[in-house]
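Our example pasted here:


***
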Amino acid sequence: MRQEVVRVGVLISSILLHCMLGCDSATVPAKGGTSGTLKFGADVTSDIVVTVHQSIGGQFSPVGFGTTIQDGSFILYNAGATEPFWLEPSDYVFTLESIGPPVRFPKEYLSPKTTPLKVTWTAEMKSVDLEAPQKLIAP
């Protein structure tokens, strides 16, 4: 139940953030937070929520999220969307959810327990580069 409440909160926050970022013609995201890119093979898409999860005591907890813009890039914000989120050295997993295009992802990309999108973040890293399946599932 708590995870569903957090998921709804993240979704609503990302929609509001996306509207704030996309209300003018510029596609420059807000400053701050760890940056990243989500690619589908050679393709990119906008309106994908990338949620960052960290394992705490054997349970995955969402700690941040970003919403992709037209070039597939995103900026991470904390789970409450109140401030930028900077990754610290640790292991993270990423889940995906579409809030725009009518696409679905293979179900393993929806759960932090099964997602193949895993990153071991080091102090030297500057950006998160994620590769998702080349072919998305139509609705």
Remarks:
- Confidence is low (pLDDT under 50) at residues 1-11, 16-27.
